[in-house]
Amino acid sequence: MQKNLGFIGVMLLTASMLACAPAPSQPATLEPAKPVATTEPVAPTTTEPAPPVLTAPTPPAHSEPTPPVMTEPSPPTPPTTTEPAPPMPPASTDTTPVVPPAPPATTEPTPPATTEPTPPTSSIPVNVLPVSYTATAGDKTYLDDTGKQLTDTVLGGDLFNAKMTGVAAYEWVGWANKDASLSFEFNQERKFSKVRIGFNHNETAGILLPKNVIINDQVFPLKGNEVPNLKRGFVTLDLNVTASNLTIKLERNPSRQWMMVDEVRFEAR
What we know:
By secondary structure, the protein is mainly beta. The chain has a domain at 128-268: Jelly Rolls (Sandwich). Helices cover 7% and strands 27% of the residues. It has one helix and eight strands, in the order αββββββββ. Strands 1, 2, 3, 4, 5, 6, 7 and 8 form an eight-stranded antiparallel β-sheet that branches. A hairpin with a 2-residue loop joins strand 5 (212-215) and strand 6. The two termini are 151 Å apart. The relative contact order is 0.15.
């Protein structure tokens, strides 16, 4: 480092000398500069290394042990007394063995019967209509023009020759001075409980009720006043007959000549 400082000093001295020299008015022959005296380099100063500073080790600090904290023991907690739970009833186990379902039968299904099923018989009596009937022909104009007038539900009036449907006495079938026989056919055997016959009663015109009504040989005598005079009405006859056809016979009253009927109805189970 000292060698460098000496060199710098030489350079500064040279520069100051050049600065002080007067500027030449005319060119002059420059003399060669004299060599600058060389200075011996300054020998570096050797400094002895400082001996290491010996510091005594700091003795470890002795700390007094902290005395243990004395805590009073907590009083013992009294045991908690709990009521024992009631014993659970034993679980009921079903000891019935599980039976596996039986395999489906391998038999062939029975074909349905080919017979016609019988219609169910009702326990409540109902009105039934015959499929057909035949009757003794009426007299004069009191005819059964359609063969269905006795079951068509069309009723005559109290006045036998009234125009109830536009034609006088059309609803009535009448027999003069003779008995009448009516035969009714049904689609199956039935248990008949009642028969209702619609009559006209007009003593002035000589129209009376029959003396007897006979149904399948069962005789029903009439008093003649079951329908009031100058009225039309039904006479109901109770039956207990099981059959598929009924025959009704009307026996005339010998004292008069006409019997007139407008409707016959049947009740069966």
